[in-house]
Design goal:
Length: 267
Amino acid sequence: MKGIFSLELARAFNIRRFAAILVLALGSVLAGIGRVSFLTGPQTIHPVNAWLLIQFYTPFTLLAALFATLPFADSLLEDRQQGFLLPILLRTPYRRYLGAKVLATALSGAAALLLAQAVHFLVVQLFIHGDAAARTFTLLSTSNPSEPRGPLGSLYAVSPWGYLGVMIVVAMVFGACYSLLGLGISTLIHNRIITLLGPLVLFQALSFLQVRTRSIPAVLNPEIALYPNAAAAEAVTGWIFPLQYGLVLLIALALLFIFARRKSILA
């Protein structure tokens, strides 16, 4: 397992694909800098507060699922199409190969979201000079100081840096689960574009339908689980995280269990 896992992990952290994520994340954060600078005005805010403002006014939630799938979600499909699978399986059992593939895909998805969040946070600090001593929270320059909305909001009052850490961990879990969802989709639909963009489309469609129709409970809105400071997050509890990510992971693993059997993959 160690040998094949090292190989898959090296392939998963492809410098070109992570460079693409870096560029997309940089473009995303720069798209919101001007507007956020205007909104914050002369008031002093905490660096984490400034970062949350950027998240709110950038297309981060639109791109997050693509960040997750871009590194390695299409790798199983690529191995099949490029003829890499048979030589690999001559040296290692299929289950070991698939297990290494799943672990490498999840880790690369988590790392991709970590990179995107790090880029957002660091760039924000270059443009908006926050004050680490500021303890209040504001979403808009005209709003009264408060705490972030959602099930994690009270943590900000205790420790803004702790809140930042939890938010980044949530994003990494999102990346791991949605990258595996892309990998699972690739075993059912053998198309690279659908593999990479499928989770993004599902994410956006479910978010849109939940907001527009109100027939879907807020706890199933994936945007809230990724960005729990959204207005609709006030209606949910901390159970949204294990519920949503557990469900996404279950779907991904079910797809792999059903459609990634040796006979199906080698057919």
